[in-house]
Amino acid sequence: MTNSPSSASSPNSPRPHPAPASALPFELQVRYSETDQMGIAHNKAYLDWFEIGRTEFCRRQGLTYKSIEERGYYLVVVEAFCRYKKPLRYDERFVVWTSLREITPKKTAFAYELRTPDRATLIAEGHTVHIAVNRGGTVTPLPADILEKISSPVG
Amino acid sequence: MTNSPSSASSPNSPRPHPAPASALPFELQVRYSETDQMGIAHNKAYLDWFEIGRTEFCRRQGLTYKSIEERGYYLVVVEAFCRYKKPLRYDERFVVWTSLREITPKKTAFAYELRTPDRATLIAEGHTVHIAVNRGGTVTPLPADILEKISSPVG
Amino acid sequence: MTNSPSSASSPNSPRPHPAPASALPFELQVRYSETDQMGIAHNKAYLDWFEIGRTEFCRRQGLTYKSIEERGYYLVVVEAFCRYKKPLRYDERFVVWTSLREITPKKTAFAYELRTPDRATLIAEGHTVHIAVNRGGTVTPLPADILEKISSPVG
Amino acid sequence: MTNSPSSASSPNSPRPHPAPASALPFELQVRYSETDQMGIAHNKAYLDWFEIGRTEFCRRQGLTYKSIEERGYYLVVVEAFCRYKKPLRYDERFVVWTSLREITPKKTAFAYELRTPDRATLIAEGHTVHIAVNRGGTVTPLPADILEKISSPVG
After folding, report:
1. Whole-number mean pLDDT of chain D?
2. How many angstroms separate the CA atoms of B127 and B80, rounded?
3. What is the pLDDT of residue C118?
4. Does ipTM top 0.95?
5. Which of C27, C90, C130 to mutate against chain A (most A CBs within 10 Å)?
6. Which residues of C are catalytic?
7. SS3 for chain D, per residue?
8. Measured between alpha carbons, how far is D29 from B66 in angstroms, rounded to an integer?
9. In sequence order, what are the beta bridge partners of A113?
10. pLDDT at A36 > cutoff 90
11. Residue A126: what pLDDT?
12. Distance from the first to the final alpha carbon of chain B
């Protein structure tokens, strides 16, 4: 079974748009300050949510992003993409499904899907690409133990 | 706060990376609150800057984005992409070059380049795609006069 | 993401700095994008957290802020204050304790305390004052049923 | 003469609400992403604008805030207050008037007024209080040369 919180979907419900295998879900809610005068969540808020998605992905792999930085590695964003399918409104709940798309010592890529809590509706999808640098900004390969943890099978 | 295209570079200087022919420049500066603990501008700030770029693009075409909304048309973002080439630091000045990539009654796309004020260095590049909707969120073709103004030759 | 009042501290633990009697707690965590280059949460993030605090306060009083706006009332902020006592770092957990300080048909005030999850340390404290306006921005007294719900004793 | 850009007001116009003597003006414009679904600038945006105000205040005193940090001093915010008098809408221009209210080696306070470009209307007013700390967060008195520059008479 791909993903976890049993509360995220009923076992008997149809899943016309299954989230990617190995994706990890994290539920969020639209903040008032994330809306704009169009009455929907502003496009930049999704990049925050992607960031929270990969933070939680790492945490559940047994590695906080904070601890990666404390060891002197920074995963800077070199590419970000988002396709917005349905608007999100204030106070609406949704789930970010984060999966690891690629990992090498120098480059990591995550994919994201935002879905309604029942999984049925795809709200947005996207990806980010990261390179590993040190505090001074020089490209620095990630050590083996970090690579292994991030890429270990998702429980 | 703004440069006209002609003031942004000396006529005799080499232009190894020319900005797109019809692009309009707008100068900005990194705000403290736009940095994160990595000491560089956060990835989501670029989406704000793209938005400012297209706002100013429309304004110089003789059409404020505000007036488009007042007539009942909203250009919702359906796709956003950014490639980050060089980090930007607090208080650093840069120029957003915005160009119209595509326009039809239902779909508009803008391309962006962020460059150092001397144009020599490409800091980031990206694009956004928009569809026109009405206040209720229904796809609504843009009227001819708005299309014409946005797509008229850039002065 | 949330604690009920009872779960936020053990009943037998000393409470050297008790949160206000009628305050409602809501647990949050510092987002990466909320930090700045000083390595701590930016001062403006606290106003977001206050807003989330009062949103959750209203929700637990049986009234979503969303429903208040749907009925045509907007609680615009006319005053905001925050005293920052301890810095907050990326990924740190904390609890916003929100209490109603004053409510009349035209004016509402909330007080906030940010504390460590064990309640022992006060991180920040502040307040916001709101007036009720209609969609057009005119001051409009809140109806009795909204007033009663917001000001009913906190469970 | 207190404040400068001759363009900020006509010499013959009445000034019913003069900005404080020694305040420095900086013009800004409301970004789309700074609005919320109420259709006005969100309350937290004002703290960004205050920050820009004091950044520009320091710059015009011959001292960039960036250079203060490079010398190892950080002016952390320990108190922030804002009174919101008139809403600000998307694309609206306004001027932040920043003045130094107090400065000692350990504590600095700035006051702010947001006004319409013609100065006639007060949009918001507030203040921030800062203490000087070093990179490790320990309170560290500002050196005499920084104090002198910040507190020198405003040109």
Report:
1. 88
2. 6
3. 97
4. no
5. C90
6. 36
7. CCCCCHHHCCCCCCCCCCCCCCCEEEEEECCHHHECCCCCECCCHHHHHHHHHHHHHHHHCCCCHHHHHHCCCEEEEEEEEEEECCCCCCCCEEEEEEEEEEECCCEEEEEEEEECCCCCCEEEEEEEEEEEECCCCCECCCCHHHHHHHHCCCC
8. 13
9. A97, A125
10. yes
11. 98
12. 19
Regions of chain B short of the pLDDT cut 50: 1-18
- Contact of C72 with chain D, judged by CB distance below 8 Å, is answered with no
Using CA atoms, how far residue D144 sits from A74, A143, D88, in Å, is 37, 46, 39
- Per the DSSP assignment, residues forming a β-bridge with B132 are B75
Q: Is A124 on the interface with B (CB under 8 A)?
A: no
Chains near B with 3+ CB pairs less than 8 A apart are: A, C, D
The pLDDT value recorded for residue B90 is: 97
Question: pLDDT, tens digit, for every residue of D95-122?
Answer: 999 999 999 999 999 999 999 999 999 9
Tokens for C17? 């700095």
Kindly provide the residue ranges of all beta strands, DSSP E only, lying in A2-149, ordered along the sequence. Answer: 24-29, 74-84, 93-103, 107-115, 122-133
**What does the alpha-carbon distance between residue C83 and residue C62 come to, in Å, rounded to a whole number?**
30
Q: Please report, as a single letter, which amino acid is at residue C146.
A: I
Q: Which of B44, B79, B80 sits opposite A48 (nearest CB)?
A: B44
pLDDT of residue D22: 86
- The predicted-structure confidence for B22-59, as pLDDT tens digits, reads as follows 899 999 999 999 999 999 999 999 999 999 999 999 99
Model pLDDT, residue D12: 42
Contact of D35 with chain A, judged by CB distance below 8 Å, is answered with yes
Q: Find the largest Cα–Cα distance for chain C.
A: 51
Which two structure tokens, joined as six digits, stand for D20?
């404080």
Pairing mode, strands B122-133 and B107-115: antiparallel
Residues of B in contact with A76 (CB under 8 A): 38, 40, 84, 87
